Amino acid sequence: GESVGLHLPTLSVQEGDNSIINCAYSNSASDYFIWYKQESGKGPQFIIDIRSNMDKRQGQRVTVLLNKTVKHLSLQIAATQPGDSAVYFCAENLSAGNKLTFGGGTRVLVKP
Amino acid sequence: GAVVSQHPSWVICKSGTSVKIECRSLDFQATTMFWYRQFPKQSLMLMATSNEGSKATYEQGVEKDKFLINHASLTLSTLTVTSAHPEDSSFYICSARVSSGRRIDEQYFGPGTRLTVT
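Above: the input entities. Below: the structure tokens describing the complete assembly.
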């Protein structure tokens, strides 16, 4: 089934601390995963992606971890800044269908 | 690079009227564009896949006669909400997939269009 969120869980984090956002995906056949950041009233912004043949990928201040055994994806943000306050979505892609299915989203609030 | 625009950014219309939303890839060609709908505090839900020069593919539960999609060129797709009703009020977001490039499954999202039906 699809990962659809009716509520937005919120993660409050102190500025400078690390943030960890979790996502459970639904389709074990999905082979490409993406994290997006969405600020209020804007479209999703690409953060980082990972393919199913990897379990970890690092970017600038962000790390994505993939655990295919339990169908779990996480996004780690190092030294969280006020500008990181937004809603974060994971998305899974099944290449055969080439459509993105979005997870429910997590709101990150950075406290000064 | 890889900029997607939407027009208008917001629109208010009366119940029963039709509204057209444009999605443009500004600096790349996109054979495939996607239309999503997002209700407040919810995730993005795919409505349809728009392919240049062919009919759109709609997701289950999305009325194709109500949400008309036209992908007339490699840089433009339009979504027309026909006979809009208040329950159609939502944030509509398009994305465009690069026709050629390092990753064919890479999508770029537009800034969204806020539709309010009164």
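Note for the figure: The two ends of chain A are 39 Å apart (CA to CA).
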